């Protein structure tokens, strides 16, 4: 076990050869873990013609970038990516290996963990180190999110975890940072691949909008019924925001399921998040608590949403929201240029 | 076409309660159900069978009570059920689970070659989604995770056409058979079980195997012993403080809020109407 050293991050690249946000966030989180352990941080960069991205990985926190550049690695496929990662992991033996909890990251990490016979913690939201034992403490919501569980992998290396997007913080890129780029050769043949990606269809509908939205107006069951929920749409319209909702709202059929925010829906980090008639259940809060400003409107002063709110208004949504709409409409653009 | 669906019995986490003193799960508070994603997995296998013919088997690892979810699967339209049940499997994490299930799949394979394995995207109790890809590795078949549509199955040419959900949209994938899919809920709608299935399910008794019924099993890779991960501590997330409560009449509160947001406008120099 002692021969394993260093923290690694799998760098996910999309088909337009942009590094996914979650990988940059993991470089930020990985940097903190590596500093605590006093070991280097490395990124693992795979793809076709992606060498050029290695510097960006270093600017975002890595000391080393391992690169495998090969035409067969053009789009993500488990069998091809797995071969490359296993080659690297067996040769350089990292003690910790992190992946984004994205479709590809989860798929890849599960395959690697099986081949390396090691432990993998899914959907982590907190990472820390037990320095005395040099153990990764990967914590995640358990049992529907009411409680956190810390998962340890004591006797196997690398210790692996997938980490949810938007919970860790990326570092400010620093182009004066220096690092090592190590490129490995790997023999891969297209004929050996048993899967082919025939087409990629981008869905730029509401869902993507929600994840990128600067301002979100989210409503809960407290709006009463579908009719009452119209207030949410009206406020959103007035200030040019996107609309979201709680699971209960989606289950009631007031909104389509892709607009659900929370543990089993989208994770969002807008500048402003209005939570209206939302109780603030932990499963909802994990999906929005990293918003910059949270405004809660709820008639129950004890509602848990007030614990995470920047500004709280105790009152009836049916009374408050129309007044808000009126105020916003009355404001000149100059006074409030962002709404 | 022989499709095997892996199904898990889980506590219904919608209603499960946590004992706040001990931080443990009060299992009695929640009924055990067929993992919702696995119900969609069975439904998809049955849909494929209806289109091109074949056999649908379901496989579960769990305590003897897990027979109940095998019966649920027969109601949806599965033909056969297998349960592996043994103390040796208890306490398994995803690595040990995929090992045990792959050993059972090898045994089923002896009875009838397998063309496709379908799992749920994840189990709602563990929430990991790691068992499916793990099984695929152990059987050395390609995995396709997060499937939202099985567009075409060509048994003769041993090919399937699949839509796989991605971060922003989906991919169209062609995979060779045999392969393993994990399915999202969008993949289909659960249909009402027809009466004959209900009658069959009520009488159905699955094949039950203990660890000694499986071939070449390395017991060190099973159950708690074979699980590299352990649960350290459980804790409730620290409660945040909360921010400023606005005061006064509703008109005053609304005005104050809008003023506060206006003051912060320098924080964000963008125009929402154009974003
Ligand atoms: C495994 C699991 C996963 C889950 N995933 C998610 C998820 O991803 N996202 C999610 O949102 N939930 C999720 N949930 C559900 C979550 O636990 C809550 O049930 C849900 O968030 C509650 O929705 P709500 O706040 O709209 O409704 P409620 O809890 O019913 O709250 C309504 C609130 O509105 C207030 N109110 C009522 N009338 C008014 C009024 N006139 N004006 C102002 N306020 C009013 C009430 O005081 C109350 O606080 C999940 C649950 C589980 C078990
Ligand atoms: N004990 C089990 N028995 C049968 N199938 C299982 C079991 N555990 C997991 N699976 C399958 O693997 C999928 C993912 O489970 P998980 O990785 O635990 O989230 C489930 O949807 C099932 O299809």
TrEMBL record, chain A:
Keyword Flavoprotein: yes
Stored SMART domains: ETF
Domain of life: Bacteria
Free-text cofactor note: Binds 1 FAD per dimer.
Entries under InterPro entries matching the protein: DHS-like_NAD/FAD-binding_dom, ETF_a/b_N, ETF_a/FixB, ETF_alpha_N, ETF_asu_C, Rossmann-like_a/b/a_fold
Residues in Electron transfer flavoprotein alpha/beta-subunit N-terminal domain copies: 7-197
Cofactor: FAD
Amino acids binding FAD: 246-247, 260-264, 277-284, 298
An MF annotation (GO) of this entry: electron transfer activity
GO biological process: fatty acid beta-oxidation using acyl-CoA dehydrogenase
Family: Belongs to the ETF alpha-subunit/FixB family.
Record's keyword terms, sorted: FAD, Flavoprotein
A Pfam family reported for this protein in Swiss-Prot or TrEMBL: ETF
Name of the protein described by the UniProt record: Electron transfer flavoprotein alpha subunit apoprotein
TrEMBL record, chain B:
Domain of life: Bacteria
SUPFAM superfamilies (UniProt xref): Adenine nucleotide alpha hydrolases-like
Residues covered by the Electron transfer flavoprotein alpha/beta-subunit N-terminal domain: 22-217
Pfam families recorded: ETF (PF01012)
GO molecular function: electron transfer activity
Protein name as catalogued: Electron transfer flavoprotein small subunit
Originating species: Mesobacillus persicus
């Amino acid at each position: 076990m002692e021969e394993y050293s260093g923290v690694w991050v799998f760098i996910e690249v999309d088909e337009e050869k942009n590094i996914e946000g979650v990988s940059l966030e993991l470089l930020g989180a990985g940097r903190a873990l590596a500093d605590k352990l006093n070991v280097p941080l490395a990124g693992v960069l795979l793809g076709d013609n992606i060498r050029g991205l290695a510097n960006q990985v270093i600017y975002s926190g890595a000391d080393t970038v391992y690169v495998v550049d090969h035409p067969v690695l053009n789009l993500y496929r488990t069998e091809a990516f797995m071969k490359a990662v296993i080659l690297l992991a067996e040769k350089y033996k990292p003690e910790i290996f992190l992946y984004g909890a994205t479709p590809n990251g989860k798929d890849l990490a599960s395959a690697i963990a099986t081949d390396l016979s090691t432990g993998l913690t899914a959907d982590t939201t907190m990472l820390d180190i037990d320095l005395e034992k040099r153990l990764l403490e990967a914590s995640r919501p358990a049992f529907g999110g009411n409680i956190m569980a810390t998962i340890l992998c004591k006797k196997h290396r690398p210790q692996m975890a997938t980490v949810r997007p938007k919970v860790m913080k990326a570092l400010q890129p620093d182009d004066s940072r220096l690092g090592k780029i190590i490129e490995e050769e790997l023999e891969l043949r297209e004929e050996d691949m048993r899967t082919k990606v025939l087409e990629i269809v981008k869905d730029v509908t509401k869902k993507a909008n929600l994840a990128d939205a600067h301002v979100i107006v989210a409503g809960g069951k407290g709006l009463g019924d579908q009719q009452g929920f119209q207030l949410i749409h009206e406020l959103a319209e007035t200030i040019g925001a996107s609309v979201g909702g709680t699971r209960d709202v989606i289950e009631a059929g007031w909104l389509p399921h892709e607009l659900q925010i929370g543990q089993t829906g989208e994770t969002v980090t807008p500048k402003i998040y209005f939570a209206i008639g939302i109780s603030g259940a932990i499963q909802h809060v994990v999906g929005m608590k990293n918003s910059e400003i949270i405004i809660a409107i709820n008639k129950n002063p004890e509602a848990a949403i007030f614990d995470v709110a920047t500004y709280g208004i105790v009152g009836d949504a049916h009374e408050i929201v129309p007044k808000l709409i009126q105020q916003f409409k009355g404001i000149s653009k100059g006074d409030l240029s962002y709404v | 076409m022989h499709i095997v669906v892996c199904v898990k019995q889980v506590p219904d986490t919608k209603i499960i309660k946590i004992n706040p003193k001990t931080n443990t799960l009060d299992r009695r508070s929640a009924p055990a159900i067929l993992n919702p994603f696995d119900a969609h997995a069975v439904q998809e296998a049955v849909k494929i069978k209806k289109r091109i013919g074949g056999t649908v088997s379901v496989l579960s690892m769990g305590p003897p009570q897990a027979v109940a979810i095998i019966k649920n699967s027969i109601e949806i339209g599965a033909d056969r059920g297998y349960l592996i049940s043994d103390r040796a499997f208890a306490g398994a994490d995803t690595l040990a689970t995929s090992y045990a299930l792959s050993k059972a799949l090898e045994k089923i394979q002896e009875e009838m070659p397998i063309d496709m394995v379908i799992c749920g995207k994840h189990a709602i109790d563990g929430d990991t989604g790691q068992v499916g890809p793990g099984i695929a590795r152990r059987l050395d078949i390609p995995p396709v995770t997060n499937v939202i549509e099985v567009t075409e199955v060509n048994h003769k040419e041993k090919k399937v056409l699949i839509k796989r959900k991605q971060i922003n949209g989906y991919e169209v994938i062609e995979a060779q058979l045999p392969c393993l899919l994990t399915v999202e809920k969008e993949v289909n709608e659960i249909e009402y079980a027809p009466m004959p299935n209900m009658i069959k399910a009520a009488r159905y008794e699955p094949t039950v195997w203990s660890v000694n019924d499986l071939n070449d099993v390395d017991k060190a890779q099973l159950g708690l012993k074979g699980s590299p991960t352990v649960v350290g501590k459980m804790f409730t997330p620290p409660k945040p403080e909360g921010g400023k409560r606005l005061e006064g009449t509703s008109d005053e509160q609304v005005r104050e809020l809008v003023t506060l947001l206006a003051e912060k406008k320098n924080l964000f120099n963008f125009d929402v109407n154009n974003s």
